[in-house]
Amino acid sequence: MAIISDMQEETRPSVPFNASLDPSNPLGFLEKVIDFIGKESDFLLKDSAEKEIATAVTVAKKRLSEVEKKKKKETVKPIEKKLTKESVEPMEVEKPKKDSLKPTEPMEVDKPKEEEKTGPIVPNKGNGLDFEKYSWTQNLQEVTITIPIPSGTNSRSVTCEIKKNRLKVGLRGQDPIIDGEFFNAVKPDDCFWNIEDQKIISVLLTKQDQMQWWKYCVKGEPEIDTQKVEPESSKLSDLDPETRSSVEKMMFDQRQKQMGLPTSDEIEKQDMMKKFMSQHPEMNFSNAKFN
User: What 3-state DSSP class applies to 171?
Assistant: First the structure.
């Protein structure tokens, strides 16, 4: 009998839902719907009823927003078509006036990134710098400049003027590739240039002061950090004893400065002071200040 009663409850006819939606009071319609569900089912007795109703509301809002997006797209399409038609029509362009054809003041050109650097930069492997149109290297005696040129260029196409304090080099009929003052004077009689493999101009400059590293080759270039210069040790044996001694001293001083240690001159002064103090033990140097 219990089974029959359950079957009767499952197959019982539902009461028809009679209610009309008033747009000015949608919550009243929603209350009637919930009241109808409570009378006709056990849904509201479930613990998850509230969450399921909230989920249903969320899904309905999502569907509604998708419908609104579709409506907006449909309304935008005809406007885009009108714009494309209008954009196709030719526009009247004003002809430049005679006054506008006059040369204007030169525009300021942004400086290369290398020139924006405030401090000295690390030199290349040849103790110089590499640029887009040329590069240069150096040792204590000489500076070598290499300039790439179109393959097959002969010496007649090159112009090169080497003066004591200035260099001008390039190809005939074109603006000079290099035109500026040296960092220091050279010996023009001991300088020369040639073309290597018909694709590189090589300019060799003999320094007048062969005990100084150049910070730049031509005025206007960024300066290199001469403390980062690395002389070729293999060539030190070719120098005369006096020059070699000076070079070794300079290299030692550079390494000491990089490590924050005293230079050779400072060490010599300290040794002299220690010797003087040992020779005069009767003197008190505890409160003495040394420069």
Answer: strand
In degrees, to the nearest 5, what angle opens at C-alpha 93 toward C-alphas 89 and 94?
Answer: 155
**pTM listed for this prediction:** 0.44
Q: Which residue has the higher pLDDT, 114 or 232?
A: 232
CB 143 within 8 A of CB 137: yes
Q: Collapse the DSSP code of 160 into the 3-class scheme (helix H, G, I; strand E, B; otherwise coil) and give the result.
A: strand
Q: Which tokens is 124 given?
A: 């290349």
| Long-range Cβ contacts of 123-127 (<8 Å, 24+ apart) | 123/224, 123/225, 123/226, 123/228, 123/229, 127/213, 127/224, 127/229, 127/230, 127/231
Give how far Cα 74 sits from Cα of 78, 79, 82, 95, Å. Answer: 8, 10, 14, 41
Per-residue exposure over 30-64, b if at least 16 CB sit within 10 Å of its own CB, e if not: eeeeeebeeeeeeeeeeeeeeeeeeeeeeeeeeee
Interval 77-109: pLDDT, tens:
554 444 444 444 555 555 555 554 454 554 444
Label residue 4 by pLDDT band (50, 70, 90): very low
